[in-house]
Every structure is written in C-alpha cells, then in structure tokens.
C-alpha cells in the first residue's frame, strides 16, 4: 500500500460518504418536513451542507477502518492463532447485535416508536452479512468474520453519538447508512488494491535484469 493508493482510498471514500449522505438526506427531506436546514425551497444549499457532512462521515469511517486494521494486527500478534481472534470477533458481533437492540429499546420512548430497536439491528446485520458474503466470493472464507465484525461493530461504534436518548430515528439513519456504505466500500476495495500492488511487484521482479 503506497501513498498514491492511500490518497485514492481517502478521497474516493469521502466522495462515497458525500454522495450517500445527499441521497439519504434528500429522501428524508421529502418524507419529513422537519428534516433539513432551510426547507425544500433551499434544496441546493441543503445538498451542499449534506455533502460536507458526508465528507466528514467518510473521513470518520476511514479513521475507524484503519483503527480496525491496527487492532487486527495487534490481536494477531498477541493471540498468535487466527481462529482465536476470529472467535472473539464473532462473539463480539453477536453481542453487539443484542447490545444495539437493547440500547434502542431503552430509548424507545424518546424515539417515539416501538420498531426501531429490532428493525435497525436486524437490518444492519443482514446488510453486513451480504457484504461479507460478497467479500468471501472475491477473496476467501477467512474474510467473512473480520468483514462482518468491521461492518457491524465498526459502524455501530462510529455511529455511537446518535444512539443516545437525545437523538431520533432520523438522525440515526442519516449517520449510520453513509458510515456503513463507506466501511463496505473500503473493505471491498482493500483486497483489490493489495492484489494490484502484489501483481505490480511480481511483474517488476520478473522484468528486472539479473545482476552481473
């Protein structure tokens, strides 16, 4: 992984965050008159503001992504056995599903609904499972649990500020969907960037002239 690829991953992830945030924010603005900055009459201004917020979501997602890569490296160095680390991640993911549901259930009166506490955890789990399945199809079976852990636990932790009792379902969805999209984009691109780098290194070594 060189600086050029890191630069590409940085700006492309930020762009994904901005695009998804604009789409989600626009849909919410159409369906909820109270959502937005200045109402539908200032749609252009709102789109710009949502794009800036989405850029921050993208950067925040990258911080979480590289924090996980660091954690993964340290955990493998300490535990030595990959299956132990995978088991811990699997257990943590299951615990996080129940934990997210419990947090939302505790705040259901503030959210003024009785469905978010079970719909959101299950929807996030299903989306995480789908992306993890696609990751396995493109790489190997060992990528399933780490991808699932990153997408569910990582997204949940990154969206933690909106899970307090002072938030509302709109704010949770508005933050969680772009963060999930950015995390999914990064994990699906990581093996492609590393594979491309490996291929380039192999080709350079094959074309190198033998030392005399």
UniProtKB/TrEMBL annotation:
List the InterPro entries: KinB-signalling_activ
Which classification does the entry list for the species? Bacteria, Bacillati, Bacillota, Bacilli, Bacillales
What is this protein's record name? KinB-signaling pathway activation protein
Keyword tags: Membrane, Transmembrane, Transmembrane helix
Organism the protein comes from: Paenibacillus mendelii
Q: Does the keyword section mention Membrane?
A: yes
Which residue ranges does UniProt annotate as crossing the membrane?
7-28, 48-71, 83-103, 115-134, 141-160, 172-190
Reply yes or no: does the keyword Flavoprotein apply: no
Q: Which residues form a coiled coil?
A: none
